[in-house]
Amino acid sequence: MAVLWGEQDTLIPITHGQAFAQSMQGVVFKSFAGNGHHLHRERPAAFVESVRGFLDEPCVPRVRPLAAHSAAPSLAARASAALRRMAVPPGPSDLKICL
């Protein structure tokens, strides 16, 4: 999974994207300096280059939620729970998806 985020995003702060990426194993996080929420409009060429670079990888790690580190329902814990509800099939954590 690739998470692309503008460092100047005023709609959803970059800390939310970073917390989500850190809560999951196998997430590729890329920030765009000087950009806001609409990366695909603000820097379309850089956005497409990042997406293509990710999609062109022959093997990407399987995305897995990491264990929550605190009892409080943090953003990372809620993101992990949301992914579990998406019915990710069970399998070894080191399984790679290769195209």
Q: What's the gist of this structure?
A:
With 99 residues, the chain is an alpha+beta fold.
Description:
- There is one protein chain.
- Helix 1 packs across helix 4.
- The two termini are 14 Å apart.
- The chain has helices at 14-22, 39-42, 44-55, 75-85; strands at 2-6, 24-25, 28-32, 59-61, 64-65, 96-98.
- Mean pLDDT is 79; it is low at 92-99.
- The protein has 99 residues and is α+β, with helices and mostly antiparallel strands.
Classify the helix fraction into a percent range. 25-40%
Low-confidence stretches: 92-99
Number of helices: 4
Shape: flat
The H-and-E topology, N to C, reads as EHEEHHEEHE
- Biggest sheet descriptor: 2 strands, parallel
The computed structural class is: alpha+beta
Radius of gyration from CA coordinates: 15 Å
